[in-house]
Amino acid sequence: WFRRGRGRLAVSCLGSCIRYDLQAGEKRQVDNGHLVAWAESVHYTVGMATTSIFGTLASGEGIMCTFTGPGSVWIQSHKPQQVSTGGQKQKANQQVGLGGTIVGLCFACVFILFLLLFAGAFLYAIMNGENVEW
């Protein structure tokens, strides 16, 4: 559903629309939420924002596009705001990405594991008749 042709193009961006003119071989990484358009001559690859899956999830960045010149790449300075399932926009301080959720669950699991180990050691000491003082 992409069309080719010559002429003027109207685009809409959130915030400022920034144009980067890449020289031959020059690379620029762009978060996919900031991407607007790129010239046909620009080669691109899509990958994770970091080198590991855990790093990508923890950072909340997700997918990153790498563009290699020559050609132009247009980006927007703001990402589109996330919309909840109810159709209402979330406030910025309410947005917690998948990475933040996973990190929070990891901390909760470590805390629960610590409590279970502590309780187990306490019960073991009591069952063996050791005097436990606080």
From TrEMBL:
<dbReference type="InterPro" id="IPR036983">
    <property type="entry name" value="AIM24_sf"/>
</dbReference>
<keyword id="KW-0812">Transmembrane</keyword>
<protein>
    <recommendedName>
        <fullName>Altered inheritance of mitochondria protein 24, mitochondrial</fullName>
    </recommendedName>
</protein>
<dbReference type="InterPro" id="IPR002838">
    <property type="entry name" value="AIM24"/>
</dbReference>
<keyword id="KW-0472">Membrane</keyword>
<keyword id="KW-1133">Transmembrane helix</keyword>
<dbReference type="InterPro" id="IPR016031">
    <property type="entry name" value="Trp_RNA-bd_attenuator-like_dom"/>
</dbReference>
<feature type="transmembrane region" description="Helical">
    <location>
        <begin position="98"/>
        <end position="127"/>
    </location>
</feature>
<dbReference type="Pfam" id="PF01987">
    <property type="entry name" value="AIM24"/>
</dbReference>
